[in-house]
Amino acid sequence: MWFRSRAFRQHRPGAMCAARLWAMCRERGLTVVADVHVHPGDSGQSNSDRAYPMVSQAGHIALILPRFARKPIQHDDIGIYRYLGGGAWHTVPRVQRRQFFNIGF
After folding, report:
1. If phi over 0 gives left and psi between -120 and 50 gives alpha, with beta otherwise, what is residue 89?
2. Burial of residue 30 (number of CB atoms within 10 Å: 0-12, 13-18, 19+)
3. CA dihedral of 62, 98, 102, 52, whole degrees rounded to 10
4. Are 80 and 101 in contact (CB under 8 A)?
5. Residue 35 host element (H or E)
6. Fewer Cβ atoms within 10 Å of its own Cβ: the N or the C terminal residue of the chain?
7. pTM check: above 0.85
8. What is the CA radius of gyration of the chain?
9. Top-confidence residue, 55 or 9
């Protein structure tokens, strides 16, 4: 897992953090199916996003919020990317995002 500090440097917490998350999920019968992170500009995938998926398991979903998640964020603004495995990704087209990802009831 990666996160950015206020100085915009990338950090990678130790494997212990990820191991704890996976253990907690197993104990509760849960599975991580998506990660959410922010970008300063639009919600397009960066080269780093494509090269280093947070969960490198086929079917994993990456959600990218634009403008550091500042409001308002429209449904269509959220970048949605499905990891296919082997370094390949499927980008959910803007016109399909509302149908793909439902917020609320």
Report:
1. beta
2. exposed
3. 0
4. yes
5. strand 34-38
6. C
7. no
8. 14
9. 55
